[in-house]
Amino acid sequence: MARDRRDLGARKQVRIDLDQPGYLIPAPDAPWIECHVLDISEDGTRLEVGALAVPKLFGLSLTSGGEVLRVCKLVWRRGELIGARFVTAKELRQSVVPAIRPAPKAAKARA
Hints:
Layout: E1 16-25, E2 33-40, E3 44-48, E4 57-61, E5 69-78, E6 81-86, H1 89-96
Antiparallel strand pairs: 1-2, 1-4, 2-3, 3-6, 4-5, 5-6
């Protein structure tokens, strides 16, 4: 059930109670780990992950087949609960592209 905008306090987005299984993807080739999606908004989600160590950047599948995937950034942790913000493609490009720089051109041999 969506919460009314007036009940959001400082929140900018409406949160929807989801209460369903999800799959945390700690790294691209790592096995998916089942978690519990408690609620979701346009900008992020709240997950129950138990004692699982969660990386700062991770994937989240909202379906077992991977039809709905989001890249997330860990924002907070309180015991077995975490809050994560969805990362946009633009943010991913900005953090990845500067790290991949072309090799410097070889200096021309002087005669």
